[in-house]
Structure formats: C-alpha cells, structure tokens
Amino acid sequence: MAKNETLPLTGRRSSSLSVKQQRYLFIYGCLLIPLIFFITIRILPILYSFNISVREWDLLSDEKPFVGLGNFVNLFNDPVFLKSLRNTVTYVLVGVPGQLVVGLAVALLIQRVTRLKGLYRLLYFLPYVTSVVAVSWVFRWIFMKNGVVNGILLELGFQAQLFLGSPTQAIYLVIAVMIWQALGFQMLIFLAGLENIPAMYEEAAAIDGANWWQRFIHITLPLLNPVIVFSVIIGSISFLQSFTQVLNMTLGGPLDSTLSLVLHIYNLAFKHFKMGDAAAATVVLFAVILVLSLVQMKLLNKKIEH
C-alpha cells in the first residue's frame, strides 16, 4: 500500500512542475513580444540614426561617405538651427512653469469643489484628448488678422494685433495653446497627488495657527514633490518635441521666430533631403532630453520625511 501511495504523489509532483514551467514560459513569452517590438521600433532606429549622423546621407545620392563630426559642425554653423535651438529653449523655459502653475491651480480649485467634480474634470480633460491638428487650426483662425480676437479688440476700441504674424508674439501664443491643451493631463496628475496627501497634516497645521498659504508652502508642495518631478520631466520632453502645433499654426514663421528643433529636423529631412544633418540634429535633441531629464531628477527629486 505504501508503494501504491507514493506513485501518484510523484506523478502529481512531476505534473505540477510541468504546469509551473508552462506558466513561466507563458510569462516570459508575453514579456518577450513587447520587448522585441520595443527593440525593433525604438532601439534599432536610434542606433541607426547615430550611424546616419556621421555620414553624408543624401537621399538623392547612392554614396553615403563617412564624414565624422562634419554634420554636427555644419549644424552649429547654421543660423537657422541655432535659432530653432533658442526657440526650443524658450518653449521649455516658458511652457513648463506655465503648465505646472496652471495645472496645479486648477487641481486645487477642483479639489475644493463639492458638487459636479466629475463634470469639471471631464471638461478640463477634453482638450487633451482632442485632435492636436484640429485645436491648432481653430486657434490659428481665432488669431488671424481678421479673426475673432482682433474683431473683439476693434469693437472695444483697441488696435488690431498681428498675433501669429508677429515675430515677438507668435511663439508665446503657440506656447499658450500647448499649455491649454495639456492642462487636463496636468490637472489629473496633480489631483491624484493632492488626494494622496493625508488630511491630518493640514488639520494639525491649521490647529497650530498656520494659514492657507503657509500650509500650501510647507505641507502641500513638499508632499507633491514626486508629482512635480514627474510633471516637469514629462512637460519638458513634450515642449522639447514641439512640432504639431508649430507646423499647423505658424509653419515655423514668421522669420523662423517659432521654428522648433523638431520642425527644423523635419524640414532638413523631408524638404531638403539632408538626412545626415537631420540625424545629427536628432542626436543633439536626444542628448538635450537625456541631460535635462537627469538634471531635473537630481535637482527636484528630494526625499520627504513625513
């Protein structure tokens, strides 16, 4: 009887092992498919762009000679590239703080709403899921010379403005549109962070006599630090990659005053067919995003003791 009893146990043990192995094969197989996709779609093109950036890669020529850093030297001697680089810095320095301030302000207001909170969230989030091209063309129509805003200004007795036709005004209007469209995303991120802050901290501070501003500065902001780090990095990458709004609202004009680095890369590659210069500019953009993200994580990511 003892022998007969041990046989089914070993049989069960071997079958359980095979089921375990099948489970691990299934798990690793599911992980392998997106990994292959990521390597094929993301990693390999990035590595290939490094190869293109050190060659004179003209689509109209069969020969692709190695030129080393020649494409990078050409870029930094190109005034249009330098202008696009300065514009991109402006997009980041103006757009990211504006996005954070507006998103946090709206999140704080919605947090204090007692009725129809879901409706307000939906209304503020709708622009984020709306087509970027459609939004850009609507605002382009609004800020035309004979558009809605100039019509209102004339009715009020003010002088009409150039807006998107002005080298000094256009870039800030594009930034404003980008902030408005990303407001819903920033609002949801900050709302999630605000709702994770224990209410007892603010209640204790209020009992000690701290006013709203003191509670916001010394409690809310420090505890929102991880959310702020995430939001700054995502916003910086988004503004560094400014393309669709610029292309549809101004085409990079007037006088290249709104030309972003990504739009300049697009022009180099698909209008002038200078793939080597375009790949070199892409490598520069990659380096800027990498360094900026690392610096922001180092400076902003502070440990908070509750």
UniProtKB/TrEMBL annotation:
The keyword Cell membrane applies. Gene3D superfamilies: MetI-like (1.10.3720.10). It is found in: Cell membrane. Keywords: Cell membrane, Membrane, Transmembrane, Transmembrane helix, Transport. It is a multi-pass membrane protein. The keyword Transmembrane applies. Residues 85-296 form the ABC transmembrane type-1 domain. The chain crosses the membrane at residues 25-48, 89-110, 122-142, 171-192, 212-234, 278-295. Belongs to the binding-protein-dependent transport system permease family. This is Sugar ABC transporter permease. The lineage of its organism: Bacteria, Bacillati, Bacillota, Bacilli, Bacillales.
